[in-house]
């Protein structure tokens, strides 16, 4: 493991597009190593539109008819369990569970539930490649996700004649005031690094800077993507100077920030 010095990130400004509470560990590490942590949350999580919520409740009411529940985020776990509680369905009535991501797994375990499947890499493409072989064509799968999540898992499994339903259990939106906060920040100061943790944050970020004519203010900022799917979302907007850590973790991001800073010296 790389050894860090207390001044590795001296003066470097790192903008994270999630709340401090969601990035507390990374915020503390950046500050500890001489950097300046900035936060403007671009994701607000809440219940989906009423029609989508009712559709999700209808699917979850029949959860015992499925062989697998799939969660791709801790929000998916959170809102699914909320709705199951409303329906009076206990943990003992749930099918086997598959998850993507350590945070998702940790949240699941905090809720006294176990995962029966975890991929070797925490991206949908790897998940499907490794998950599909353990399924049979008799299996029924329910994917619980947010409104902006990709449909790669469902589409790929259906192509293999696996039955899949998708429940939209939560919604991603741009928080009130985020547009002005981001515009004011980028208009007044240069940010060395911008950390993106999902394609949703990329989309919201690009909507705001495009609408406010701020593209030139981030052209010289280094973009850090938590994983390959988020990196792809950035490159599709023409942002080619994108770095992706080898490990999709807080430690992986910090290591990448420090390595880049050392190269600049």
Could you please describe the fold and organization of this structure?
With 265 residues, the chain is an alpha/beta fold. The protein is 41% helix and 18% strand. It contains eleven helices and ten strands. It has helices at residues 24-32, 50-60, 74-86, 102-110, 124-131, 152-159, 178-188, 199-211, 215-218, 228-235, 250-264, and strands at 13-16, 36-39, 44-46, 68-71, 96-99, 140-146, 163-173, 193-196, 222-225, 242-243. The strands form two sheets. The protein has a five-stranded parallel β-sheet. It has a five-stranded mixed β-sheet with strand order 3-7-6-4-5. α10 (228-235) links the parallel β9 (222-225) and β10. The model has no long low-confidence stretch (mean pLDDT 89).
Please tag this protein with its features:
single chain, 265 residues, alpha/beta, five-stranded parallel sheet, 41% helix, elongated
In brief, what are we looking at here?
Helices cover 41% and strands 18% of the residues.
Q: How far apart lie the N and C ends? A: 21 Å
Give the low-pLDDT segments. Answer: none
> Strand count, sense and closure of the main sheet?
5 strands, parallel
Total E-strand runs: 10
Helical stretch tally: 11
Give the amount of beta strand, in percent. Answer: 15-25%
Side-by-side strand order of the widest sheet: 2-1-8-9-10
Given helix and strand content, the structural type is alpha/beta
Overall residue-averaged pLDDT value: 89
